[in-house]
Each structure stands twice: as C-alpha cells, then as structure tokens.
Amino acid sequence: MACSMHQEVISEIVKKGICSGCGVCAGVCPSEALEMAWEENGDRVAIKVGECPPKCDLCLRVCPFNTQSHDENTLAKDRFEAMSGIQHDEAVGYYLSTYVGYSIIADHRSRGSSGGMCTWMLETLLNKGEVDAVVCVGGGDTHNQLFTYQILDNVEDVRASASSRYYPVDIADVVRQIEAPGEDKRYAVVGLPCTLKALRLAMMYLPRLRKRLVFLLGLVCGHMPNRYYTEYLARLSGVMPDLLETVDYRLKNNKRAGNYSFRAHLRGGAEGQLVPFAGRPSRAWIEGYFQHNACNYCDDVFAETADVVFMDAWLPEYESDPRGHSLTIVRHPILRDLLVERGIEKTCHLEPIPVDKVVASQRGLVYRKKVEIGGRLHRAQRRGEWVPPKRVTPSEEAWRKHRRDIEARYAVQCTSKRLWPKLRKAPLWRFHLRMWRVDWPLRVGLWWGRLRRVVTNPWVLLRMLPRPLRRCCPRSWQRHVLGNSRKGER
Ligand SMILES: Cc1cc2nc3c(=O)[nH]c(=O)nc-3n(C[C@H](O)[C@H](O)[C@H](O)COP(=O)(O)OP(=O)(O)OC[C@H]3O[C@@H](n4cnc5c(N)ncnc54)[C@H](O)[C@@H]3O)c2cc1C
Q1: Which of 130, 431, 455, 472 is in the most buried spot, having the most CB atoms within 10 Å?
Q2: Cα-to-centroid distance, 189 and ligand 1 (Å)
Q3: Cα dihedral across residues 284, 119, 342, 308: positive or negative
Q4: 112-125 burial, b if ≥16 CB within 10 A, otherwise e?
Q5: 80 in the same domain as 15
C-alpha cells in the first residue's frame, strides 16, 4: 500500500507547514522512505524518497506536532512523577533542583554559550562511565550543512562541540545509527524541546531506542531560525554565503553576557568581521526573521521532557558578567547527584537558585510560549488554518491584546524567507529596506515599551551607563538597578 492511502507525516505535518525539521520521523522510518532536505525558503523539512511499509504511521506518531501524540505533560509525568523528591511548577514542569553556575574544567566556560555547564555534563557522564557516547552538534562537512548531530565518545571532541548553533540540525542519521541492531550502547543526547519530545515519543515505540537513550539533555529554546539567518549574519560580517566554511555564533568579549559576537569563517582560513549581537542581529532574532513556522506553535520553554535543562542566566545579577552563567534545572536523580558531588569536588561552581528566578530569567519567552500563543492559535482558527492542538487553548483575548505584534511577526517571518533567496547576494540595504516595510510595527512597539519603562521607572536609565561609571554610583542606586530590571521582559 502506498503512503497516500494512510496517514503519514508528509501529508499531515510537512505540507501544512508545521515541520520543525527535527528529523526523528526520518530516523525511525523502517523503510527509510523519508529524508531531511532544505526547502527553497531555507527551512529544513522531511521529504519522501521511497514507499512506506503497509499501514505504517510511525513517522506521524513520533512527530512532536502530531495531533494524536502524547503531549509534554503526559511524557514528563511518565518519566518523572514517581521520582523521589520531585516537584512541579506550571512553567518549568517537573524539577528536583535548580542551580546557577559555571564549569571550572578547562575551557568549558570560555567556549560555552553561557557557563559551559552542558559540556560539563556531557564530559562528566562520559568520564564517570554513565554513558558510552554522547550526541551533540558539531561542524558539518559541506557549506550546504554547516552543522550536524554527531555521536562522540571522547572528551576533546565534546569540548570542540560546545556553544549554541542557531542553525537547523536534524537527528535522522544519528537515530538510525543508535537504533541499528548490534551491541547495546548507552547514549546521552542534547537537544531542543521539539527534538527531545520526538525522541521520547520514539522511545515509546522502539524498545532498542528506549534502552540506549539513557539521558536527554535539553536546551531552553526561544525559536529556531532557518539557514538564512546564518547567511544573513555572515553578510553582516562581510562574507558572501557561498564562501562560508563555518561560523561562531557566540564569541565572548568584555561586554555584557548578552552582547556576544558573531564571526563567519571563509574557506581557506580567512575570517569575516566580528558582529556584536546588539543591533541588527538581535533585532532579527527578536522579530523572528527566518523563523520556522512550527515554532509559532511550541508551548514548551523548559524542555519539559528532558532529564536536565540548560539555559542562559538572563538575570541582572549575572548578565553583567561576560564570562557567562548557566541556569540548570535537573529532573533526574543520577544527574542531580553528579552535579552535587562534582560541585563539592570543585569541577564546577554551583549555587541553588529558586525556581521562580529561573522562570523570571525567561519571562518574555514564557509569556510568548504560554500566553501569547493563545492569540496565535486563535488567529489560525479564524483563518481556517490547521494547527496542532496545544496545551494552551486558542484565546480571543490574547489575540485582541497582541494582534498588532502577532500579525507583524508572521509578516516578518514570511517576508524574510521569501526575500532572502532573491537578495542574498544583493547589497544588504535592499533587504533591510524591503524588511522595514513589514517590521516597522515591531520597532515602534519596542520603542514604545522602552519609553513606557523609562517614564514609569527612570532608574532603568542607570543600566545604560557603562559599567565603570555605574560602579561609581551609590550602592542604594545600584540596588534599584538590580531590583527594578528583574521585573523586565528578558
Ligand atoms: C536554537 C536555540 C535557541 C535557544 N534559545 C534560548 C533562549 O531563548 N533562552 C536561553 O536561555 N537559552 C537559549 N538557548 C540555549 C543557550 O543558547 C545555551 O545553549 C545554554 O545556555 C547552554 O549553555 P552552556 O554554556 O551550558 O552549553 P555549552 O557548553 O555551550 O554546550 C551546548 C551544547 O549544545 C549543543 N548544541 C548546540 N546547538 C545545538 C542545537 N541547535 N541543537 C542541539 N544541540 C545543540 C552543543 O553541541 C553543545 O554540546 C538556545 C539554544 C539554541 C540552540
């Protein structure tokens, strides 16, 4: 029977524009009838390259955006509910403990995105023999795929794979390798919330995968931009997309932790200019240039199905330190014990932090994924578009409140993906000018928000002073800066 006779992921998800490109469907397909490929608009999606086995709908059952699949609540409950000492928070999901800190091993912290704690965890799991290999994201082999998922079993390679890649990577090949018959090895996998949810679903149906994937390590995810985001940043750094060898998204400097720099590397060893995140890159990120449509319908901020989660410490008391701090939510007792034990052995610096501060560090994102999403779902319903059922229900109220922003963000996403293939080699001002026509409502909204914040609370102006000058201010003023900005959006 051909695939068209029964439900499968291409007709039910990809053609409806909701594929996040995780690749788990392609990895588990028993007849390897699916592959991952680039769409013309820069998204990475599953495509059909063969015939499905009769009546098989496994690809659909493991899709994180499938209608019938279990949601994050059910998957997390199955995994964590029975664990001793486990607690639950509405935004964070299950948790045993929450920490702020950084790695003290080698160059973890300087190479890592925030405090290097994710690399620390991968390396510690390998060294302690808890797993035989880890799965994370390292350099790809062609300029068509700058980064890929890799299976690594030595510490040097794990260290070289540190840092965040804001670039679509699929896990299809790795899932095929792990699931293949043969010796049972134990793996830890790093992934974004959608990838880990898909892996948890796949583990329900594939016993070998269930046995071999012993730990899932999550990253908090704002959204995933498609490959054109990287090309755009490369152009900002003065490098033509076709000459790209690789890129660094998060080079640390002596500014605030959030103002890291981007650098493009050309084939032959030359480098582009450093591009600070503040300015055009941050605008493109915040406004959702090149964003996958699926991310509009994600309601999982804290990778709720992961055994441990890492994120940036976007809190004023840590943000001013350019060396970076990771916030960690731990849900599995073995990983919690590793953190505590190694904290005592001084391979990492860890302090407990209240869970509500962890939520506060991602306040804007929590609002977007847990409240504003209701407005996006309502918009889709009004337009008769199919969207996956979510834990948040469609909300007319959220739609009315955020209508201008929601519409502008959709326009920015679609327009940037449509324009870039035509203008990627043209002078950049042409792209900026065309984008300005759709993104001005977001800019106006941003400046209006800032103005309101200054008027209601002038202390925030102190944050704009350079750090040495701020240090000269009286302590009581400085306390105002910390106390007030904590209520801010980021
Ligand atoms: C697309 C994306 C969006 C993010 N959005 C947010 C956000 O909104 N707020 C926030 O606080 N944090 C966000 N993060 C997480 C943040 O960037 C850091 O990854 C996190 O703070 C861990 O830092 P670290 O120094 O502990 O990790 P590191 O020691 O730098 O290790 C990071 C690990 O993640 C792996 N990795 C890198 N890119 C990917 C990827 N695309 N998919 C799977 N694995 C990957 C690396 O191979 C490495 O093993 C995002 C990350 C990504 C990739």
Answers
A1: 431
A2: 13
A3: positive
A4: bbbbbbbbbbbbbb
A5: yes
Residues in the chain: 490
User: Is the distance from the beta carbon of residue 192 to the nearest atom of ligand 1 less than 6 Å?
Assistant: yes
Q: Which residues are CB-contacts of 390 (< 8 A; sequence separation ≥ 6)?
A: 71, 297, 299, 373, 377
Q: What is the pTM assigned to this prediction? A: 0.93
Q: Look at 280 and 143; give whichever has higher pLDDT.
A: 280
312 in contact with ligand 1, CB cutoff 6 A: yes
**Atom from ligand 1 closest to the CA of residue 225:** 1
Are residues 249 and 147 located together in one domain of the fold? no
Please indicate, yes or no, if residue 168 is contained in any of the structural domains.
yes
Residue 292 lies in a domain: no
**Residues 221 and 236 occupy one common structural domain:** no
State whether the beta carbon of 326 lies less than 6 angstroms from ligand 1. Answer: yes
Residue 38 CA to ligand 1 centre (angstroms): 22
- Would the pLDDT of 412 be above 60? yes
Candidates 43, 113, 302, 339: which one to mutate for ligand 1, based on the most atoms within 8 Å of Cβ?
Answer: 113
Ligand 1 centroid vs 118 CA: distance in angstroms?
A: 8
Ligand 1, atom 42, residue with closest C-alpha = 191
Looking at 312, 329, 361, the residue that finishes a domain is 361
What ligand 1 atom has the least distance to the C-alpha of 219? 15
Nearest CA to ligand 1 atom 21: 311
The pLDDT of residue 479 is 65
Domains: count for the chain:
4
Are 172 and 312 found together in one domain? Answer: yes
* Mean of all residue pLDDT scores within the chain: 92
Position 482 confidence tier, pLDDT thresholds 50, 70, 90: low
Which residues span the domain enclosing 372?
A: 362-456
Does residue 260 sit in the same domain as residue 143? no
62 and 189 belong to one structural domain: yes
Question: Which tens digit of pLDDT belongs to each residue from 422-462?
Answer: 999 999 999 999 999 999 888 888 888 878 888 887 777 77
Same domain, 355 and 407: no
What does the pLDDT average to over 161-186? 96
Within this chain, do residues 330 and 438 fall inside the same structural domain, yes or no?
Answer: no
